[in-house]
Amino acid sequence: MTPERVGAKQSRWLFPLSLATAVALLVSWFPLGTLLHQRAALSQVRGQIAVVQSQEAALAAQRRTVSSSTQAILRARQQYQLVEPGQSLVQVLPGTAGTVTPGAGDPGNQPLVAPAIAGVTGSSASTTSSPAASSSAPGFFSRLVRTLEFWR
């Protein structure tokens, strides 16, 4: 064989080999996993943007409904219990004690406690108490422990 044919044979294999090496370097330098992870992150952000845009549209619609001053005053009274200067707000609580569960919600909504149950005695009850009843009353430390029951 002539030296020219040997050089042509080598150049025929040199181009595909260099192309395969370039592709291998490109794949190792630019990993496919990172690309897929970034695409997933982008789609998640697009979803969040869509949610924010829908909330913005809802707020714009709400702004259009409240654009009149009468609607704004009505909403301020209903949702925020605001009144105009010189007016006073009066809230009427429900009158039935059966619908209010003790210990739930606002303490102002709970029914009143009878003085006898609360341990408050009037002047007539203090004059009729016997010495035996006062001696069986719990001491300071037992009342303190009973008051601080939160650690049980």
Describe the overall structure.
The structure is a single chain. The chain is mainly α and 152 residues long. Among the domains are: 1-30; 38-84, no CATH class. Helices cover 63% and strands 0% of the residues.
Features:
single chain; 152 residues; mainly alpha; 63% helix; 0% strand; elongated
Please describe the topology of this protein.
Blueprint (H helix, E strand, L loop, with lengths): L2 H27 L2 H34 L3 H12 L34 H4 L4 H6 L2 H5 L4 H8 L5
Distance between the termini: 100 Å
- Percent of residues in beta strands: under 5%
Can you give the helix content as a percent range?
55-70%
* Tally of alpha and pi helices: 7
- The run of helices and strands is HHHHHHH
- pLDDT < 50 stretches: 123-134
Q: Tell me the radius of gyration.
A: 41 Å
Mean pLDDT: 76
**Structural class assignment:** mainly alpha
- Count the beta strands: 0
Major sheet details: none
- Principal-axes shape call: elongated
Tell me which oligomeric state these chains represent. single chain
Question: Brief overview, please?
Answer:
The chain has 152 residues and is an all-alpha fold.
